[in-house]
Each structure stands twice: as C-alpha cells, then as structure tokens.
Design a protein that fits this description.
heterodimer, A: about 160 residues, two-stranded antiparallel ribbon, rod-shaped, B: about 180 residues, about 70% helix
Chain lengths: ~160, ~180
C-alpha cells in the first residue's frame, strides 16, 4: 500500500466530531421558516378534471350529433313526460322584389359559383319578382325565371348564360 | 417510526418529526461538509442551511428516494458553492500527514483540527469539482452511481476527475516529502 492509500484508509475510518450537536439542532429548528402553503389541488387532480370535462364534452357532442332530430323528449315538472316536435330548420330563400336581372344574376352566380354572361343587354335591366328556396338547384331556378319572364337562363361551362 | 412515516409527518408540517430527521442525519451531513470544506464552523453552517432547505422542500420530496441521498445532494451543492467562493489558503501545520503514515493504530481518534489539516494538505491543489469527487469517492466511500446522483456528473466525468485528483495529490505528497 502506498502512502496515499494509507492516508486515505486512515481518513476513511475517522469521523469528525460534531461538537454542540444539540445546540446546532436547536438553532436549525429555530430558524426553520414557515413551509409554503400546500397547494389545494395537485397537478394530477387538475389534469384529471380537465380530462373528465373533455370526455363529457365529447360525449355530449356525440349524443347531440347522433340523436334523432325529428323529435326530442323533455321532462316536464313532476313525473310527466312530454314529447314535442323538434323545430324544423328554417328554409332559406332567395327573395327578389323588383330587382334587376343583372343583380339577380350576380346573386345566383355568387351562390352557385357561376359567372354571369349576358347575351342580351336588354335582359340586364328587366325587373323580377320571385322567391326561391336556396336548396333548389340552379336548373330549377333557371326554369322558374323562364316561366315568369321572357328571359332564358342556362348553365354551361361554369357560366350562367342569360338571353 | 419508519422513515417514510416520519417524512409524511414532516410534509404535513410536523416540526417535531423534522427534529427527529435532523437528529438522525446531522452527523452524516456534518461529516460530509467537514471533509469537503475542512472547516468546522463552515461545515456547521452547511448543516444548518441543508436542513432549512430540506424543510422548505420536503413537500416535494419523492418518498421512493432515500432521504439521506436527498440531504447529501443539497449539502454537496452547498459545499460546491462554498468551494467556488472560498479561495483562502491558510498555512498548514508542519508535517500534517506524518502521523497518518507512521501511525500503526488506525483506531486512534484524530481531533477535528488534525483531520482538517490532513485533508486540506491533500486536497488544497484540487479544483472544487475534483475535491468533491475525491471526498465522495475516497473519504465517504460512496459508489459512482450515487455520486452521479449527488453531483449531476456522468460516470466518465467522475472517473476522469478522480484520476486527475489522485495524480495531483500524489504530486502534492512528493512536494511535502511523503513520497
């Protein structure tokens, strides 16, 4: 064994003496600060709450999405159960009240993504009165216009052609 | 009362339980700090600061870890800071290691002052990191894995620092006339 190892082995077995250990302990205990307040909710609890809320949200959305829309049941006061018709979605209409054909063509073109093309300049200024559901096809609306006026409307190559 | 129960009580703010923790571990923490700093008063300050920090952080303490390792981690970091700040070189007594080499009875009790002088004469030329590694490995007899936990150094860094520390100490022994 060399000198270094001999010195180390001596020092390993020697423990320094902690003089005044109890006084040091008292000093430590007296200088302990207040512990920081315990968090009311631990992180995992917050995470679990968020997960539960998320799952409830998904469940509610799923139920709403797949539930029959024709009828809905709701519980009235007491034990009586009342079945009511779910309100039908309101139909949306094109309403043209004394509107020039140029404006009618622009509105229909925008809705059906067609470019209005007037082959008859005079048709631009003809005024129309009619109402049509937006759910109808452009062909149906074109036929309607043809029936109520002397204007002919056709669809070709992405264009709304008005004669 | 087992250690986990004791810690749980400390986590609930029980100061008397914490006093028991201090009484159980104060000697070990002091020994570690004393061997690192070679100064009794500074080592006591480290003990005090270690337990104050432990008290402040005990609610975050992971019960699956050994308490001693956690306390050592705090103490080692405080010692490292103290070593970085303190660069004083007090004069050493004549032949501080002579008794350790010639002494045939290793059971002879050394006084703190004598021990501090011996360790200081060995480690005074070491960098703070080398000093920490040397103390934990050679004097505290800790395993590399535990030292890595305490210091944040990798096993290779520990080996490298220890090798450099031993070489520096051997040169120091030659300089002091012991080799």
């Amino acid at each position: 064994m060399n000198n270094l190892d001999q010195i180390i082995s001596h020092l390993q077995v020697q423990q320094p003496v902690l003089n005044g250990a109890d006084e040091l302990t008292d000093r430590i205990m007296q200088s302990l600060p207040e512990q920081p307040a315990k968090p009311k909710l631990r992180r995992w609890a917050i995470a679990a709450s968020i997960a539960v809320i998320f799952c409830l949200g998904v469940a509610a959305a799923t139920i709403y999405h797949f539930a029959p829309k024709e009828a809905a049941t709701e519980e009235a006061q007491g034990s009586e159960v009342v079945t009511t018709e779910a309100p039908a979605p309101k139909p949306e209409f094109f309403v043209f009240d004394n509107v020039e054909m140029e404006q009618v063509a622009a509105t229909l073109g925008k809705h059906f993504r067609l470019t209005p093309v007037f082959e008859n300049e005079a048709a631009k200024h003809k005024r129309l009165y009619f109402r049509a559901e937006k759910s109808r096809t452009i062909q149906e609306i074109a036929e309607l216009i043809s029936n109520i006026s002397d204007i002919t409307v056709t669809v070709r190559d992405g264009k709304l052609i008005i004669k | 009362m087992d250690e986990k129960t004791l810690i749980r009580r400390c986590q609930d703010g029980d100061r008397e339980a914490f006093r028991t923790v201090v009484e159980s571990h104060r000697q070990a923490v002091f020994s570690l700090a004393f061997r690192m700093l070679c100064d009794e008063s500074a080592a006591k300050d480290i003990v005090q600061e270690t337990f104050i920090r432990a008290w402040q952080g005990i609610r975050r303490f992971d019960l699956s870890r050994p308490l001693r390792t956690w306390l050592y981690t705090i103490a080692v970091r405080l010692c490292q800071d103290a070593l970085e700040k303190c660069s004083r070189t007090e004069p050493l007594p004549d032949k501080p290691l002579q008794n350790l080499i010639s002494d045939q009875s290793p059971d002879r009790r050394m006084e703190n002052r004598e021990m501090a002088a011996a360790i200081r004469s060995l480690t005074q030329r070491l960098s703070p990191k080398q000093r920490v590694v040397f103390t934990l490995t050679c004097l505290e007899s800790l395993e590399t894995k535990e030292i890595a936990t305490l210091t944040g150094l990798t096993a290779d860094q520990i080996k490298s620092n220890l090798w450099q520390a031993r070489n520096t100490i051997k040169e120091q022994l030659k300089r002091l006339g012991y080799e």
